[in-house]
Write a structure and sequence with these properties.
By secondary structure, the protein is mainly alpha-helical. It has two domains: 30 residues, no CATH class; 31 residues. It has two helices and two strands, in the order αββα. It has a two-stranded antiparallel ribbon. The radius of gyration is 17 Å and the shape is elongated. The relative contact order is 0.09.
Length: 63
């Protein structure tokens, strides 16, 4: 069941040629307000950069 929406989006004829849509439980849905938040995007970007830097400076450690 965990991959149901992903599989549905990949193979269902109703979604042929459709892109850029958010799906939840095999239905089109609105994304969370956090998905459009510039401050959350910046925070996530910074956290990603921090993890990459930590990983590259210590190649023997996993994140």
């Amino acid at each position: 069941q965990a991959a149901a929406t992903t599989c549905y989006a990949a193979v269902h004829p109703r979604l042929a040629g459709v892109s850029g849509r958010y799906l939840a439980d095999c239905n089109e849905a609105l994304p969370s307000p956090a998905a459009a938040s510039r401050s959350e995007a910046a925070r996530l970007w910074q956290a990603s950069e921090d993890m990459i830097c930590a990983s590259s400076s210590q190649p023997d450690k996993n994140i």
